[in-house]
Amino acid sequence: MKYFILLITVFFVFSCGNKKILYLPEINYCEISKIQDVSHAYLFYDEIQKDSVELNRKNLISTTNWLINVDKRLTLKQAIPHLKFLQEKKKNSSHKNKEAKNYFTCNDTSRQNLGFIEFTDVVYFNDANGYDKELNSDDTSMLVFHLNDIRIITSDNKVFQADKSSLIKTINDLFNLNKSLIYLEFKDSLTFQEYISIKSIIEKLDSENITISNNEFIY
C-alpha cells in the first residue's frame, strides 16, 4: 500500500465497474499525518471533458471524520461548489458528532506519505455581496492569490507584492506588531494543487497578533 502512494500519489477507485484515478495535491510538510475513524469522498477530474467534475460520496458517514480527496488538476471553480455541498450535508445531518471534522487529503512529500489539512470551519464565499459584507471593517486586511501573483492589501489600502517563498516573512513584517485579521481571496482559476500549496504555507504562520479568517473568498 505504501509503495503505491509513493509511486504516483494516486487513488484508484472502482465505481460501476470502472477504475478511476485521482491525483492528490502535494505539499512539502503537513502537521497532521494520522486520523482515526474516517470515511472518504472523492472529486474526480475528467481528462476528456475537462470542464466537468464528478463527486463520489457514497461511503460518507456523518458521524466520522471526513477525508475529502480532490484531484489536484481541478480548478477552484469546479471544486468549491461540491465542497460547500458536502459541508452543508454534514452540518444538516440528523446524526451528528461534534468532534468529527473535515480534512483535505494530500501527499506529504517530506514524509513520503499522506497528510491532512483541516477545513471544517472554512466558509466559502463566491460572490461580491459576501465580499462586501465581510470587508467593511477598518481593521481587516486581505491576501489575494492569482496564479503568479500574490498581493497583500492592508487595512489602509496599501498594496504589497509577495511570493510563496517570502510570504510568511512579509506577513510578519507587515502585521506582527498589531492585532490583525486577515482574509484570503483566491481566483477561481487556480488549481486545487495551487490552493493547497498556499494553504499549507499559511498554516505555518505562528503569531499571536495575526488571525487568519475562516471566511475565504473565491471568484
Helix/strand-derived class? alpha/beta
Low-confidence stretches are 1-8
**What fraction, in percent, of the residue positions are helical?**
10-25%
Report how far apart the termini are: 38 Å
Could you tell me the strand content as a percent range? 35-45%
Q: What is the H-and-E element order?
A: HEEEEEEHEEEHEEEHEHE
Compute the CA-based radius of gyration. 18 Å
Number of distinct helices? 5
Number of domains: 2
Q: Your description of this structure?
A:
There is one protein chain. The protein has helices spanning 2-8, 76-91, 128-134, 167-175, 192-202; strands at 10-15, 18-23, 26-27, 38-45, 53-56, 65-70, 102-108, 113-118, 123-125, 140-145, 150-153, 159-162, 180-186, 210-218. By secondary structure, it is α/β, with parallel strands linked by helices. It has 2 domains: 2-121, no CATH class; 124-218, Nucleotidyltransferase, domain 5 (2-Layer Sandwich). The strands form 3 sheets. Strands 3, 4, 5, 6, 7 and 8 form a 6-stranded mixed sheet that branches. Strand 13, helix 5 and strand 14 (210-218) form a beta-alpha-beta unit. The longest helix is centred in the middle third of the chain and has 16 residues, at 76-91. The chain starts with a helix and ends with a strand.
